[in-house]
Amino acid sequence: MRCACVKNVRTSKTELDTKNAFLQQLQTLAFEFIEVSKNAIDNLSDIEHQALEKLSKDKTIIITKADKGNAVVIQNKSDYIIKIQQLLQTDGKFKMLKEDETVSRESSLQRTLRRLSNHALISKDVYNEILPCGSRSGIMYGLPKIHKTGTPLRPIISAVGTYNYKLAKYLDKILKPLVPNENYILKDTFDFVNKVSNIAHVENQHMVSFDVESLFTNIPTLETIEIILNRAFKHSEIFHQMNRKTLKNLLIICTQKSHFQFNGNYYDQIDGVAMGSPLGPLFANIFMDEFEQNHMQKLKDLGVKNWMRFVDDVFSVIENKSCSNNILEFMNSQHKNIKFTIEMEKNNKIPFLDTSVTRKETGFTTTIYHKPTFTGVYLNWTSLTARKYKISLIYCLCDRIWRICTNQNDREKEFRKLKHTLAKNEYPEHIIENEIEKFIKNRTTQPPTQEQQENIQQVPTVEQQTADELNNTILLQQLPVPPDKEKQIKYIVLPYHNNKVDAISSKLTKLVNSTFENLELRVAFQTPNEIGKKFPFKDNIKNKHLRSLVVYQVKCETCNQTYIGKCKRILQHRITEHNNAKKDSAIQTHKKLNPTHTIDANSMEIIDKADNNFKLMLKEMLHINKLKPELNTQHAAAYKKANNKDMFITQLNTIIIARKA
Q1: What is the mean pLDDT of residues 582-599?
Q2: CA-to-CA distance for 435 and 400, rounded, in angstroms?
Q3: Buried b (16+ CB within 10 A) or exposed e, 295-331
Q4: pLDDT at 112
Q5: Terminal Cα distance for the chain, rounded
Q6: Which residues contact 609 (CB under 8 A, 6 or more apart)?
Q7: DSSP letter, residue 7
Q8: What local confidence, expressed as pLDDT, does residue 636 receive?
Q9: DSSP reduced 3-state for 148
Q10: Which pTM does this prediction carry?
Q11: Number of C-alpha atoms within 13 angstroms, CB side, residue 426?
Q12: Angle at 28 between CA 27 and CA 30, to 5 degrees
């Protein structure tokens, strides 16, 4: 067990004793967790494992989730590729590139940001926040729309880790205030329910919904950028330290220079914004908000009485049924890129945002609406997941019924449906009855607590909050907090091997929270093995030199001695440095000491990977400790001899508990 602990500070003997006691208890918990993990539960049979393994090896099919509804879709791989390629051939939307431009574009953006920082056009904090390192290309994939004829695909680009991703997130953060939410934009389903319930009904009025066809891919990029710039610089020539030219350049980098790969080829999306880009919803809302500001008066003249929009879906109350065609024709004649479709109410009802809206003499009521793609599949009671998440799922679904159903009869009907659905997901009857009864009793006597509201946000997509399994490594990041500040909330992720992990979680939380008065630790669980991971359908980075956040090994062809290192950047940069005779590296040290030996960094082997630099550092340490590579020791000794100091100086402000070597 190795411990690298809290940042070196001058401490009293009492403080040191407290830290040592804490580390000892933490070490004990770590060993206890490792022992518990050895008895991991597997709730799949051997036959099921064999079937999944056989399916995963079938290269003629692709298995994905559906675009809407919790369904699994099996497609012929050839059909899937043809549909994506047809999308990529859309005129004026995509351009094929000769090669992966990640390295050149990352370097270019680094230079641009460095120049902006040097000229005080962005702050040092912003520079550090958005500087790219170890980027990869975007990855396009498609989710099948099983509710539509021909099962078309919704194109999505996985942008996390791309060279402009952090910049796009920052721009999204500072530009969001440019969209006035008080106009016609809906926050979510609950916001819609509140607003539609307050509409006063007038006889003969009619409900309709409009949908913008493929809004994201049809947004005129440069036009929308000009709208953003006009709003940002309406009252000043400076916006967040940037001038108009600087902001425009950064927006173009994040939209028209966002390359991605599909089926071994690379593309730029030159118009529209990608689903998956942090700027996608912002561009959609700003463009549609401008559309509404420019045309709302005319729409009102044509008969629009109420207008509420959630991204590309619009709910509207119009003067009467006969004016709907004129409204639709007018909207579809305003911009060549934007086309609307319309759905009319039937029998005084219309679906919108997972609700069914009913028009009555006294006003509008809402209830739950399940789309035709609804499968009723939720987190199964027998799944290897903490019990608290399953109970919270019941609460979450009950809360949804309570807030959406404005009529008591509808609530009772939906609660009966929910009981049936949960039973199909193998929830015990007494659990269902007790939790629903408890919810109704609490809701009729008092409003939901803050903790209950937090649970709503946590369920059921626990995986979104968690990281990859830590290979039996527990780590806790402890950042120093001034005593006059509020407690910092920190999360730790543990793989949920069995229900004994719950007890360890409680002990760990109690230990940390009692030791660090300004820290509140919360434990999240992750399922160690998920079936979906057996069926990857996105392109991988095939060129190892373009990967990042990896631990690598280089071997001398003459003596077979090895070097182990880590690289958070694109690996090609590190290879170039290792092979540069003017650079100080382990390979060059070995060549100088052994001129006749052959060692080339281009032949390096990737032996591990991580999703952040901290975990990468841990994994490098573990591999070095296990494999004891000779060239690491050789290089460190040569460095100390030349510089009269150790090569590695511990500067960790993190408590680390790693598994035994």
Answers
A1: 89
A2: 14
A3: beeebeebbbbbbbbbebbbbbbbbeeeebeebbeeb
A4: 96
A5: 7
A6: 547, 549, 550, 551, 616
A7: P
A8: 67
A9: coil
A10: 0.81
A11: 5
A12: 65
